[in-house]
Amino acid sequence: MTPVPAVGVVCLKGDQVLLIRRGNPPRMGEWSLPGGRIEAGERAIDAALRELGEETAVTARIGGLLDVVDGLLPGSGRHYVLIDYWAEWISGEPVAGDDAAEARFFGIEEALRMVDWDETRRIIRMAVATYSNKIVE
User: Fold this and answer.
1) Phi, psi (rounded to 5 degrees) for 27
2) Strands 31-32 and 35-37
3) Which run of H or of E encompasses 133?
């Protein structure tokens, strides 16, 4: 199985985080971070902003890289290498687009309860801690 490069974005708006409900496999119907595959010749950071816009109609400023996560989906033959960024919301109200069935902001604690995958919860916590430290500086 060849790994597929992909991006995810933890978009923060004050004390809220933007989630999408996945409209397609893998993890269809689950709440997750906006994101998707990196296109050939596309920089990862550009893919992150493109996917955010396509899936949610929200504009944000990338704050930095959080982590790189292996998304191994047992039984599916899929292996994603997820490059996760945190971003600060600039404008737009979430509207589901592309392969997102829903898109909306949740309070941090509610968002953590909505997400099924431990790695996504870990990435959200990491983004919130990083964002909070930037505000204090």
Assistant:
1) 60, 35
2) unpaired
3) helix 118-136
How many angstroms separate the CA atoms of 55 and 91, rounded? 14
pTM surpassing 0.70? Answer: yes
CA distances from 81 to 3, 4, 37, 73, 132 (A): 6, 6, 9, 11, 26
Sole residue written with tokens 């994101």:
35
pLDDT digits (tens, 9 = 90+) for 14-73: 999 999 999 887 778 999 999 999 999 999 999 999 999 999 999 999 999 999 999 887
User: Percentage of residues in the chain with pLDDT exceeding 90?
Assistant: 80
Q: Which residues contact 73 (CB under 8 A, 6 or more apart)?
A: 26, 79, 80
Q: How many Å apart are CA 121 and CA 33, to the nearest integer?
A: 10
Selection from 58, 38, 34 nearest residue 47 by Cα: 38
